[in-house]
Amino acid sequence: MIRVNLLKDHTVPVEKKQPMMTASKMTWVGYVYIAAVVLVAAALGYRFIDSGNAIKQAVAENQSLERELKEMEALRRQFLELEQKTQERQGRINIIERLLESQKGPVKLMNAVIQAIPQSRDIWLTSLEQTSTGVKVRGETRIPEVVPDFMGNLKKSGIFTDVDIELIERRDEISSFSILLRQ
Buried (b) or exposed (e) across 113-148, using 16+ Cβ within 10 A? Predict the structure, then answer.
């Protein structure tokens, strides 16, 4: 069995402990402690508010960037459409240029004859045939005075060196004519 003496032994000198803090020291430490808590709370509050503002700014900037992205995407689509149209038109231009380059002989001859027809257009061409001496153009008109205009326009085209009338024949209201062209 163990025995414990709960009575105080007066023979052993007891040291008197000094109180750790006095009331004035305690007040000063309390103020420091409260000031530290207030500073920490203020710093945390500032951080919280600042991070809230930063989030708001980031969200606003994100929305702004998304709007700009949509605008840029629309502009990009328009650019691609215009570029496609440009390529299509350039392709058409290239085809026309190749056709113009490939026009020879009969095509140039036909173009010159068609462009030589007077503006009054009271003239009809019935045949165009190539002979050993040149090209023979036959046609009809209600107004015989149009034939000299037609011949003058053929001379001005620069393709024909000689334009001669072969025949003018009047039947009822229509005149038939034949013109010989030399290149």
Answer: beebbbeeeebebeeeeeeeebbebbbebeeeebbe
